[in-house]
Amino acid sequence: xxxxxxxxxxxxxxxxxxxxxxxxxxxxxxxxxxxxxxxxxxxxxxxxxxxxxxxxxxxxxxxxxxxxxxxxxxxxxxxxxxxxxxxxxxxxxxxxxxxxxxxxxxxxxxxxxxxxxxxxxxxxxxxxxxxxxxxxxxxxxxxxxxxxxxxxxxxxxxxxxxxxxxxxxxxxxxxxxxxxxxxxxxxxxxxxxxxxxxxxxxxxxxxxxxxxxxxxxxxx
Length: 220
Hints:
The chain has two domains: about 5-80, Arc Repressor Mutant, subunit A; about 90-220, Four Helix Bundle (Hemerythrin (Met), subunit A) (Up-down Bundle). α10 runs antiparallel to α11 (about 200-220). A hairpin with a 3-residue loop joins β1 (about 65) and β2 (about 70-75). The chain has helices spanning about 5-25, 35-45, 45-60, 80-90, 95-115, 120, 125-135, 140-150, 155-170, 180-195, 200-220, and strands at about 65, 70-75. With about 220 residues, the protein is mainly alpha-helical. It contains eleven helices and two strands; from the N terminus they run αααββαααααααα.
């Protein structure tokens, strides 16, 4: 299993080096960034790592990809959250725990919002997830459930904050849900959400996250 803590550090390193490169080359808001291949060579990392970092920056609104044209720098002044969180995470001794707790606040809030809204809990996406969980040849990632739950609330700010916190918390969200007990826990979470049972849904979510946190502790 990939070491998620190392992945988080790599993400931080690449973001930091990209920011330095932007300053060194005098790239201004609206200017085009170097190609993915050039960035990988300059930073001496794999193209897949650069691609993930760029994807993260785009979702946070730091850069903009224009189909057929390339990637352009957005206005950092509109996205001070990234700089604030980066500084906090690098300087605070218990920052990982703080980030994890803050991330989970957003996750619980999204679950509660969906569970208590009749229209949201009736969305077909939840049944689709249940189907994917049970299909042997389907790949259903941990990230899929949390991301789609926040997306359903239409809270774009919460989604951007969550995405950033996810990168720093060291949790392996890019892992497929395959083991029997995890499948059962996530399935119960979906059932309770669709049934409108808030307390039971949060209990299933807490059980799931306890498992994920134990797993993170074992690989650090």
